[in-house]
Design goal:
The chain is an alpha/beta fold. The strands form three sheets. Strands 4, 14, 15, 16, 17, 18, 19, 20 and 21 form a nine-stranded mixed beta sheet that branches. An eight-stranded parallel β-barrel has the order 5-6-7-8-9-11-12-13, surrounded by five helices. Strands 1-2-3 form a three-stranded antiparallel beta sheet. Helix 2 runs parallel beside helix 9 and helix 5 packs across helix 6. It starts with a strand and ends in an 8-residue tail after the last helix. The chain binds ligand LLP. The site of ligand LLP has 21 residues, from helix 10 and helix 11.
Length: 421
């Protein structure tokens, strides 16, 4: 459920007509709904009620500080993967004690920044990383709280580019070697082992891979405890999928996921951390674009939009499906047409949808890409010297620009010409 709907034939974000925002901000732009973000975040709290837990929003999904602050005010922790994300979360008011640091290649400098801030936890992914963290912590005279990410060798049955829990993936340590690695961790004076971490992939549409992975984690927790480790937290990662609008993708609900968590690891009496990203913001955001031209090909019609692959890369990168709807509601079924919908960037991968049936539209009409809140604006680039797409946040009947579109002059000024030229 989200808070984008037609009222009097015009798409609204909560109480605000999208057309009104477009008139002020100009297209393309991302638009988020506070009510939807709030609702989806709270679903996890309900799903894990009765369990000591912290929801660490995976801010890589959408990292504008206005979104982070909205979530921090609801009690969210954050999952960060770089010093940049860490600093952004802190700047948005997230206490370091609620931040976990994931990622397969944290540098010593990143470790230092997070340790100085008194971060809650590092999720370590390898032995060399563990030794580096030990040294950095000792240099600062502190102990680093650590969970070690294990790779359970499970196929999350999602797009191969976003599966992370198989042997061939670069993530975590093989679960078969976990006992040895934990033994070594316990011997390092700068490392304080607090738990186990696992994350098997993104856009999961079935609970079975979770069940398999979490059962393995539960067994490991019991074994590590019998080895004398104080396993008091389990970080179970993120990855729960969202419906992208096609009838065949109906992922499990957070409440079902919560039940599974309780069933598989509830008996361990650990504090549970989860790291959802997509489910919190995915359906809370749309990308609004205008039709620049309707162009006739030999055997098809093309819509050329003012949004492009640099603004929303998911279709080009993962063959992802996004619903594309007119901002002015289509009056009838007969008014539907089929289009190949593309952006203006000079490569054939700048194609959002082929042979898509949508309302017949004309030059200048507004279209909205649904479910674009996660991995949308954050993955945007300036390819083709196109300005980074702006972001807008709606709350009730108010809206605010939460990131301006940069002026082309500003972008150009960032280059420097060497003295010899
Ligand atoms: N925790 C870790 C360690 C992760 O690597 C990720 C996502 C998450 C949590 C959050 O997963 P989520 O709940 O959002 O599925 N750009 C891709 C998705 C990449 C996901 C990367 N890791 C896409 O657009 O589909």
């Amino acid at each position: 459920m989200d808070h984008f709907e037609y009222r009097h034939g015009s798409l609204h974000a909560e109480g605000v007509p999208v057309e009104e925002i477009a008139a002020m901000v100009k297209t393309p732009f991302y638009c988020y709904s506070t009510a939807t973000i709030t609702r989806h975040f709270n679903l996890f709290g309900e799903a894990l009620s009765g369990v000591d837990h912290l929801v660490c929003y995976a801010m890589k999904a959408a990292s504008n500080q206005a979104i982070l602050k909205t979530l921090a005010d609801l009690g969210a922790g954050m999952d960060v993967v770089s010093a940049g994300e860490y600093s952004r979360a802190v700047a948005a008011g997230v206490p370091a004690g609620r931040i976990v640091f994931s990622g397969v290649g944290k540098t010593r400098e990143e470790m230092r920044v997070a340790l100085e801030g008194r971060i809650r936890q590092f999720n370590l992914e390898s032995e060399p990383e563990m030794h580096a963290l030990n040294e950095v912590a000792l240099g600062l005279g502190v102990r680093a709280p650590v969970a070690i990410r294990v790779n359970p060798d499970v196929d999350a049955e999602t797009h191969s580019k976003i599966a992370t829990g198989r042997k061939r993936d670069k993530f975590g340590i093989p679960i078969s070697r976990a006992r040895d690695v934990y033994r070594e961790a316990a011997s390092l004076p700068g490392i304080d082992v607090v738990g186990i971490d696992v994350h098997i992939g993104s856009q999961l549409t079935d609970l079975a891979p979770y069940r398999f992975a979490y059962k393995k984690v539960a067994e490991l927790a019991a074994t590590l405890r019998s080895d004398g480790h104080d396993i008091r937290r389990l970080d179970l990662g993120g990855g729960l999928g969202i419906p992208y609008g096609r009838s065949n993708d109906l992922p499990p609900l957070p409440i079902e996921y919560g039940r599974l968590v309780k069933e598989t690891v509830g008996h361990l009496d650990c504090e549970i951390e989860i790291e959802p990203g997509r489910l919190v913001v995915g359906n809370a955001g749309i990308l609004v674009s205008s039709v620049i031209y309707v162009k006739s090909g030999e055997d098809r019609e093309f819509l050329i939009l003012d949004a492009a692959m640099n603004d929303l890369i998911r279709p080009a990168m993962y063959d992802a499906y996004h619903d594309i709807v007119p901002v002015r509601e289509s009056p009838s079924e007969e008014a539907l047409a089929r289009y190949d919908i593309a952006g203006p960037v000079c490569e054939s991968s700048d194609m959002f949808a082929r042979d898509r049936k949508i309302a017949r539209v004309a030059q200048g009409d507004l279209l909205a890409f649904r479910s674009a809140g996660a991995y949308g604006a954050v993955m945007a680039s300036e390819y083709n010297t196109r300005p980074l797409v702006p972001e807008v946040l709606v709350k009730g009947d108010q809206f605010a620009i939460i990131r301006e579109r940069p002026a082309i002059d500003e972008m150009i000024k960032r280059d420097t010409i060497p003295v010899w030229l």
